[in-house]
Design a protein that fits this description.
By secondary structure, the protein is mainly alpha-helical. About 70% of the residues lie in helices and about 0% in strands. It has a domain of about 80 residues: Tetratricopeptide repeat domain (Serine Threonine Protein Phosphatase 5, Tetratricopeptide repeat). It is built from 46 helices and no strands. The radius of gyration is 47 Å and the shape is elongated. The chain starts with 10 loop residues before the first helix and ends with a helix.
């Protein structure tokens, strides 16, 4: 008998170098620990665990450093060099009461058993573990056996377990739970199902826990229909189910998107009187939330809490999300407060959902407050949270805060997506903050983030501002980046050319679109129609309209309104009103803007009666007039010197709850200023501030002109000062009126200062400004300065008018310099200017006014 001189501590190392493997099972001591708990100590096996009882060759009877083997097993090992299957089973059956020793022999026999098939010995060893209450040890032993190349199939294993169960004289069926658990958890769900079917046909029913493990494995493997078949089989055979079973089946239905089926499981089990647990309620509520039935979700949430269960944070989040999707903000906030009061902290998903709800409702401030609370509570916002807030701020026209959040997001190491960047760029563009929008665009373009939509936004906005050259440069840059223009890209550039009246360039782009297989749409043709109307080419506009119809492109409301507005602007308002009737017959429903175009057109043509008739037609069509409608009438009545009728319109407007806008105030103030009723004009000006409006440059100009006409330049200068303080731009009419007033009151120094200030601000004088300057200087006897202004005009290739020559001729005539006066007369004739009656009154009759 050969002896082994190795100690127990060396056995594991020797095992790694052993090349001999048994046919069915190879159990490595380095990875197999059937039980972490030690069996009762034996005097010959102090502190020895199962994993140490493995041999790399036949054992020695010599005492090792870790202890000595029991004589009984040692004698057996020494006696049998190659034990038979019957002998192995005999030894295992004789040692059922001592699983520790039985395992030692089993491992030795498996290692040295040669070609002996050991499936029966494995089954007996599993029974031994089960009988001794070592289910986890049995599971680990079986799991290790399945990792071999010749692992037993489930059907055979179940049959052999049934046979050996009788041999062992046991009636403990927990070994079958062990088989089901191990096969299912090892991912061998098909084998697990086969084994399960073999068990139940043999009258063996695994426990509900094991059945649930099998159902879970099937659901996770997306074999949901198989799980449902198995569930029905269990029900048909009277196997009891618990909440976990129901929860598994509901998750399976939810996984395949069948919400109704998931709920059917719930009601079926509720009808059977099953008492639900918190897990099941959480699943049910989340299922209902996916159906977006927030009312029922809240009812189940209340039922769950009434039973003493605390909903999970995911459940609360689901209910909040369902309420949010149905626009029930108050209920969502109530659930949020309830969640916090139950001690369930707000998670990232719930907080982000509430932030989205605030933004959807337009309450961006509430969303920002929630963000602050979120960060203070230790919840770090995600990229989605920031994206929602940025979008909300942009929609609320608070692009400054949006950009602040964008920078904060980047500082936290998050990369904004292109949609977020595009939102901020659009926000800057809407506020005409070109520098910031292009800076952000350059960052996006350099990083490769900018997409076709980014370019389209900028091209469109540049085109609306008639900055077509810049739009075209951006277009070229877009092409160089390899981006393919869309119909939206072309429409943006076509719009720019149409606004500039460059219809040839616009037409070339339309042709280019067709050549590249991009079909022009209704917006393309409507832009072209609008461009031709603005250029006064009405016939060409209708030719494009005809082409559009010929291609089968159906006009939309934008097209109809463009044609009506274009005819009105072209002075063909009556034709526009006839065209409106035709469009209505074709199904067009006019809106307030439609009627406003016709009303404004008639008013500008001096046809107040037709404007009022259209106004009544508008009422009969059920369209309510807006501020623009009344402003047109107010402006029309004022221009017709019917200030009282204008005020009546103002009163009617207020009676309908409409607030005057800046344009309406401008019309009224201008009317009173022209009537020299500065008191009423000033009252309206003060009222404008009280209602929260900011006066425009036109309003200031009307008031300054009114005070100038009354020679009250102190008030005019005070208004100019107020403009500068408020940051309201002084335009050419502002400076021209102030310079004229200053010269009329003899304040030449201030007039010169104003003129210098005007030039410094880049405001270019026109013929009216030069006329005012020369006339005022001549009246003050400043003939040399007046002549210098004339030279300045000549230097700018700007031709003086008759009024300028009359002022100069009168000035020199008044100064007694007849020679210069007549020379100027001759110069005037040489320029092709026709002297008027005032010229001859000065030269012949000496009338200087």
């Amino acid at each position: 008998m050969r002896r082994c001189s190795l100690t127990l501590s060396s056995f594991s190392l020797c095992l790694h170098h052993s090349s001999k493997k048994p046919k069915y099972f190879y159990l490595s001591t380095s990875s197999f620990h059937p039980d972490h708990d030690k069996l009762p100590n034996d005097s010959n096996f102090p502190e020895t665990t199962f994993s140490e009882i493995v041999f790399t060759e036949k054992p020695t009877t010599e005492r090792s450093s870790r202890g000595q083997f029991p004589p009984s097993l040692t004698q057996i090992f020494q006696k049998e060099k190659y034990p038979t299957q019957d002998h192995i089973i005999e030894i295992l059956l004789n040692n059922q009461h001592d699983p520790k020793y039985a395992l030692g022999y089993f491992l030795w026999a498996d290692k040295w058993g040669g070609n002996i098939k050991t499936i029966d010995s494995l089954c007996i060893m599993l029974h031994i573990f089960i009988q001794s209450g070592k289910l986890s040890s049995a599971e680990r032993l079986l799991k290790k056996s399945l990792s071999g190349s010749s692992s037993p199939n489930a059907s055979v294993l179940v049959d052999r377990l049934i046979k050996t169960l009788k041999i062992c004289g046991s009636d403990n069926h927990r070994v079958f739970d062990c088989v089901l658990n191990v096969f299912a958890r090892a991912g061998l769900v098909g084998e697990a199902v086969v084994g399960f079917n073999r068990m139940i046909t043999s009258g063996i029913f695994p426990c509900v826990k094991s059945r649930n493990i099998l159902l879970t494995a099937l659901v996770r493997a997306n074999k949901i229909e198989k799980a449902q078949d198995l569930y029905r089989e269990m029900q048909a055979r009277g196997m009891d189910c618990n909440c976990s079973t129901l929860d598994i089946m509901m998750h399976g239905s939810l996984k395949k998107g069948n919400l109704d089926e998931a709920e059917d499981y719930f009601w079926d089990m509720k009808g059977r009187g099953l008492k639900f647990d918190a897990v099941l309620y959480n699943t049910v509520i989340q299922s209902i939330c996916k159906k977006q039935d927030s009312k029922r979700a809240c009812e189940f949430l209340k039922e769950m809490k009434d039973l003493g269960f605390v909903p999970s944070d995911i459940t609360y989040t689901s209910v909040i999300g369902a309420c949010m999707k149905q626009g029930n903000m108050m209920e969502a906030l109530r659930i949020k407060d309830e969640m916090i009061s139950d001690g369930v902290p707000l998670n990232l998903v719930a907080t982000t959902s509430l932030i989205k709800l605030y933004c959807t409702q337009g309450d961006v401030n509430g969303a920002l407050v929630l963000l602050s609370k979120m960060t203070k509570s230790g919840i770090a916002p995600s990229g989605v949270t920031y994206a929602i807030l940025i979008e909300g701020c942009c929609r609320n026209r608070n692009v400054e805060k949006a950009y602040e959040l964008y920078k904060e997001m980047k500082e936290m190491g998050m990369s904004p997506n292109v949609f977020t960047v595009n939102s901020i760029i659009r926000g800057f563009l809407e506020k005409k903050r070109w520098e910031e929008s292009f800076k952000l665009f350059d960052e996006a373009a350099d990083s490769g983030l900018a997409n076709i939509f980014t370019y389209n936004n900028l091209i469109y906005w540049l085109s609306t501002e008639s900055r077509v050259t810049e739009a075209r440069n951006l277009w070229d840059k877009m092409l160089n980046k390899g981006l393919i223009p869309t119909v939206v890209s072309y429409n943006g550039l076509i719009l720019g050319h149409c606004k500039q009246g460059n219809m040839d360039a616009a037409s070339i782009l339309v042709t280019e679109m067709s050549e590249k297989g991009i079909k022009p749409n209704v917006i393309t043709y409507t832009s072209m129609i609008d461009g031709y109307f603005k250029k006064g080419e009405v016939d060409q506009a209708f030719n494009v309209h005809g082409q559009m119809l010929g291609l089968g492109i159906v006009p939309n409301d934008f097209t109809f309104n463009t044609i009506i507005n274009g005819l009105c602007k072209a002075g063909q308002t009556f034709e526009a009103s006839k065209m409106l009737k035709k469009f209505i017959e074709e199904g067009f429903i006019p809106i307030c803007m439609t009627y406003n175009s016709i009303i404004d057109g008639f008013i500008k043509e001096g046809s107040m009666k037709l404007a009022l008739a259209t106004f009544h037609q508008m009422h009969q069509s059920g369209v309510s007039p807006n501020v623009v409608t009344y402003t047109s009438f107010i402006d029309g009545y004022i221009k017709n010197n019917s200030i009282n009728l204008a005020l009546e319109m103002r009163n009617e407007m207020r009676s309908k709850g409409l607030q005057l806008d800046v344009a309406a105030y401008n019309a009224l103030i201008d009317g009173f200023c022209k009537k020299r009723n500065m008191q009423c004009a000033r009252e309206l000006f003060d009222e404008l501030f009280k209602v929260g409006l900011t006066p425009s440059s036109a309003i200031y100009n009307s008031l300054i002109g009114g005070y100038r006409n009354q020679n009250n330049m102190e008030e005019a200068f005070e208004l100019h000062k107020h403009m500068c303080e408020e940051g309201i731009r002084c335009d050419l009419p502002t400076y021209t009126t102030l310079i004229d007033g200053s010269l009329k009151v003899g304040n030449i120094v201030f007039a010169a200062e104003l003129y210098t200030e005007m030039l410094a601000k880049g405001v270019v004088p026109d013929i009216i400004t030069y006329t005012v300057l020369i006339n005022g200087l001549c009246h003050e006897g400043q003939l040399k300065n007046a002549h210098n202004v004339l030279d300045e005009m000549n230097g700018k290739n700007m031709s003086p008018n008759v009024l300028i020559y009359n002022a100069l001729i009168a000035g020199y005539f008044r100064a007694g310099n007849m020679q210069e006066a007549f020379r100027l007369h001759d110069e005037m004739l040489d320029r092709g200017l026709e002297p008027d009656e005032a010229t001859y009154d000065i030269l012949v009759n000496g009338k200087f006014e």
